[in-house]
Write a structure and sequence with these properties.
Blueprint: E1 12-17, E2 20-27, H1 31-36, E3 48-53, E4 57-59, E5 67-72, E6 78-85, E7 90-92, E8 98-103, H2 106-109, E9 118-123
Parallel strand pairs: 2-3
Antiparallel strand pairs: 1-2, 1-9, 3-8, 4-7, 5-6, 5-8
């Protein structure tokens, strides 16, 4: 799959960079899941995240933990990586078409940087 809007019926997909699985992410496809985002969560598991299609900015108002934010272009090319974005912050990226929110430290752990090209590997095996 080549775009963030190409999602399995489960709502969970695996995100891969260079053949390495980065995280299983829930895709925020509707108004409510996009608005809610990660609000109300105490934390993210180390290999868990949220993918928000058709998005170029995020805020961490009312959140309890920092996140890494990966801004993606139309072909899932990494446009910008913001690490350790703490609560009560705002971030955006011109030209981004999707946002990947990951646990703080995940982007560095996987060496994510502008210019990388991510892939959606299909339905993730995520039990919640």
């Amino acid at each position: 799959m080549s775009s963030a809007s190409s999602v399995s019926a489960s709502g969970w997909v695996a995100v891969v960079n260079g053949g390495r699985r980065i995280a299983d992410v829930r895709v925020a496809r509707d108004f409510w899941s996009r608005g809610r985002g990660l609000l109300g969560r105490a934390a993210l598991a180390p290999s868990e995240g949220l993918l928000i299609p058709k998005c170029a900015s995020v805020h961490t108002w009312f959140m309890r933990f920092p996140i890494d934010v990966v801004y993606l272009g139309r072909d899932l090319d990494v446009r910008k990586v913001v690490t350790d974005l703490g609560p009560w912050r705002f971030s955006w990226c011109r030209g981004a078409t999707s946002v990947l929110e990951l646990p703080a430290g995940c982007a560095e752990l996987h060496g994510l940087r502008a210019g990388d090209r991510l892939e959606i590997a299909g339905a993730a095996q995520h039990a919640r």
